[in-house]
């Protein structure tokens, strides 16, 4: 028998994949395996029974990897399992930044009781006018599972797409639409693009990569989208650039205190992977990985 513990609620569609040999544990102590979504694990103690942690998601920055390595605990993630959910929210983020959908919705809510909507409709059309994304240049930094989906979807919306990833060669980026301009120089993206979206992991050399130096190369009014990790963007520099107008909009899925409430920031409470489909896919992949490891010793996505 194996005991597993869910540190966060995990989709039942995934948990159903456990056979009768697996029993849920009421606490982490004594469990063979832990399933986790976004809960921070850095402060937790792991006892000797714990063999594996499966993160139902891509990023593993909530897990103390060094401590796990020291204690021989294998850590899995589920790359790609929620990529479509994130891709769809990135596209929505570009549209939110380009059309004042939120301003218009708020205006209707504020005015509906007074019956002013029909009377002021023409004023609203002017006040909430936006621009189209078709024909604009999008730079995608990071061509992993999510970046590739975003890049391909944007070409279908008529955008001119630039892709950059130091670890993906032009030849191996076969999943990219042929019409994407694959650049080896990230500065080209900073200089050329109207929209820039980041899809890289939070590593020592990517932390703070969007800082005042990078921003200084960008176009006036550029839209930056961050659905990857908050630490990739230097918060002080992005706030300055939003206040000064160099960055037109910053769309982020990370509601940190530094950015919440800043004018022209569109702040979403980490909802990229919050779809039924993504949650089911992540849970299924995480459970399959745990079972394959505990029963067969196989290690995938570690
Ligand atoms: C991820 O890293 O894939 C996301 O943080 C997933 C999530 O929202 O749990």
Number of helices: 10
**CATH superfamily placement of the largest domain:** NAD(P)-binding Rossmann-like Domain
Instruction: Write the H/E string, N to C.
Output: EHEEEHEHHHEHEEHEHEHEEH
Q: How large a portion of the residues is in β-strands, by DSSP E? A: 15-25%
The CATH architecture assignment of the largest domain turns out to be 3-Layer(aba) Sandwich
Biggest sheet, in brief?
A: 7 strands, parallel
Strand order of the largest sheet: 8-7-6-9-10-11-12
Kindly give the count of domains: 2
Return the CATH topology of the largest domain.
Answer: Rossmann fold
The global form is globular
Total number of strands: 12
Look at the structure and give the CATH class of the largest domain. Answer: Alpha Beta
Estimated radius of gyration: 22 Å
Give helix % range: 25-40%
Kindly report the average pLDDT value.
95
What class would the helix/strand composition place it in?
A: alpha/beta
| Structure ligands | D-malate
Distance between the termini: 23 Å
Low-confidence stretches: none
